[in-house]
Structures are given as C-alpha cells and as structure tokens.
Amino acid sequence: MGLWCRLFKFTHDTSVEKIEGFVEDIKQILETHPDTRKDNIQVFFYEFGPHSLDILLNFFVKVPDREVELIKRQRILLDILCLAEKKAVRFAFPTQTLHIESLPEEKPTIPTQTATFQKDT
Q1: CATH topology for the 2-87 domain
Q2: Exposed e or buried b for every residue in 27-52, given b needs 16+ CB within 10 A?
Q3: Which end of the chain has a smaller Cβ tally under 10 Å, C or N?
C-alpha cells in the first residue's frame, strides 16, 4: 500500500468557485477509483503560497508492489489533469511580478563631453 501526498498549486487569480469545484471533483475521482483506500482521502485548499494557491492531496493506493502503484498513481494523476483542463484551472509555477513606478527624470551623473573642432590654418 502506498501513500501519495502532493500539493497542487494554482495561480492566484483562480476563483473560489473553481477551487471548490476542483477539490470536490478530485475527492470524487479518489472515492470512485477502485484502488484507493476510502477511509483516508484528504483533499483541501491548504494555504496561500508565495506563488500559488495550494491544494493538499493525500491518499493511499492499495497495490501489491511499486510498479502497480506507479501505474495506478499515473492513472489518477492523468484523471486530475483532464479535470484541470475541463475546469480551465491553471497550475502555477514560481513567478515574481515587478512593479516599477515612474521616476523623475534624472540628469546623468557623468558629464558628457562635447566635441570641439578646430579649423586647421
């Protein structure tokens, strides 16, 4: 039996309705999957991350060995990806936004040289 734990990270502009619907639909996927333990499924909006809104996902898969666990886990994750496409939610990745205020125009700190030409006589 394998435990699987993951944080899904959504962009900060994801609506409350999309998060609530996504959480409930993931629970439905896990509750109806034949190889998950039904007594300990945890899917929750977990925290406000610095770059994302995080969904916690914990579940156990009832399997005889590691290879079967990977196959079953892959199927569940692909179902979750299909759900994300259907719900039009976007997964986040670390990003930073830089806000630049307009600054007063500054004069150059290094004086510029002006070319002077002398006429040869």
Answers
A1: Alpha-Beta Plaits (3.30.70)
A2: bebbeebebbeeeebebebbeeeeeb
A3: C
